[in-house]
Design brief:
Order of helices and strands: HHHEHHEE
Helix content: 40-55%
Strand content: 25-35%
Shape: globular
Length: about 140
């Protein structure tokens, strides 16, 4: 489920950037950075469930090492109680949601996107679907 959601969201990000920003705008994915987002999603869920975050310092250290000097890192985590891709995408691409649309419209040098989805299943068909969209960019002067 997680991989299918990620594949679908990646396609939608690419289409959004071409349609809303520029047809020539490239969307390049950073697989290593995407990998580093997973511990953050696990930490957010542990904080939500038990009220204590584990591994946040490790996540921050990984990001510092993965993001080159001079680059900015911006991430947007969000949790859903379902795995409905249409609703998840609507929340990420909603023009009134300033943070995710700002990430989606990022321009600059060496723009690299990262995406991770983590689904936590609970009894009685309850799910917590965490999605984190992130970008690293070398800002233009």
């Amino acid at each position: 489920v997680e991989l299918a959601l990620e594949r679908d969201l990646r396609k939608r990000v690419i289409e959004y950037r071409k349609d809303a920003c520029s047809p020539s705008l490239q969307t390049i994915w950073d697989e290593e950075l995407s990998y580093y987002l997973e511990p953050a999603l696990a930490a957010y869920e542990s904080d939500r469930v038990i009220g204590h975050t584990f591994g946040n310092e490790d996540f921050q250290d990984c990001i510092r090492r993965a993001v080159p000097d001079g680059h900015q890192f911006k991430g947007f985590p969000i949790c859903f109680g379902h795995t409905d891709i249409a609703q998840i995408w609507a929340a990420l691409s909603n023009a009134k949601a300033a943070v995710p649309t700002d990430l989606l419209q990022t321009r600059g040098q060496e723009v690299r996107f990262a995406l991770r989805v983590k689904v936590h299943a609970f009894p009685e068909d309850v799910t917590a679907t965490w999605v984190m969209l992130a970008v690293r960019v070398l800002p233009t002067a």
